[in-house]
Amino acid sequence: MELQSAIFNEWRHLFKLDPDREISDERLDAICMSGTDAIIVGGSSGVTFDNTVDLMSRIRRYEVPCALEVSSEEAAVPGFDHYFIPLVLNTDKAEWLAGRQIQALRKFGAFIPWENTSAEGYLILNGDAEAAKLTSATSSLDAEGVTAHIYMADRLMRLPVIYMEYSGKFGDMELVKRAKSMVTGARVFYGGGIDNADKARAAANAAHTVIVGNIIYDDLEAALSTVEAVRHVQQQ
C-alpha cells in the first residue's frame, strides 16, 4: 500500500485534463506552470490512444507529475508517472466494478506497471453527469448510503483512493467531510463544480485532494486561482 500511494499521498491540488477537449499551448503552459501538484488525464467519452498520447507528449515538456485515469483499453498509454484504474462503487452494473477491468487484465495484466498503478473507487454523486448516465450510477445517496460505500471501499476493499465525483456541480461538502473522517487508509479525492477560489478552499477543507477540471476550459484565471486557494488550507 505504501508503495502504491507514495506518489499521490501528498497531492492536494490536481488539474484534470480531458484528451477529447482542445486546449491551446498557452493555456496548457499556464496550467502546467501553475504550481499544481499534478495533472491527471482522463475523460468519460471520446478518449482514444491517439488523443491521450498527444496530450501526454505536450504535458511531458513540463516537470509537473502526470497521471492517467484509464477509462478504456484504448487509452492505456505508457509513459505516465502513475495510473488510476476506476471502479464505480455505486452502480449495480458489474461491468463498471470488475467486468471491464477483468477483460483488460486478461489482455494486459502482465504488462501493467503495478508499482505505479492504483485502484480508484468512484462515488458518482451527480445524476446529471455523463459518467453517471454511462455507468447507471445510483447517485442519490444519503449520508447513510455514503457511509456504507466508504466502509466497503476503505475497510473491506482497502482501496487507496476514493473519488467523490459531482462532475458539473458543486457537491455536498458535509458528505465529503464525513467520508474523510471515516477513512483509515484511503485518500479522499473530490471533483465537481470548482469554479472559483472559495469553492476550492471549501473542497480542500473537506477532502484530502481537490480536482479542478471544467473551469480550465471556460475561465483560465478562475482555474489558476484555485491552486493558491488550496495551498493555504491546512491539511487536517
From TrEMBL:
One function term, GO molecular function aspect: magnesium ion binding
Catalytic activity: sn-glycerol 1-phosphate + all-trans-heptaprenyl diphosphate = 3-heptaprenyl-sn-glycero-1-phosphate + diphosphate
InterPro entries per record: GGGP/HepGP_synthase_I, GGGP/HepGP_synthase_sf, GGGP_HepGP_synthase
EC number of the protein: 2.5.1.n9
Short name of any one Pfam family annotated for the protein: PcrB
Cofactor: Mg(2+)
HAMAP family: GGGP_HepGP_synthase (MF_00112)
Subunit structure: Homodimer.
Homology family: Belongs to the GGGP/HepGP synthase family. Group I subfamily.
Protein name as it appears in the record: Heptaprenylglyceryl phosphate synthase
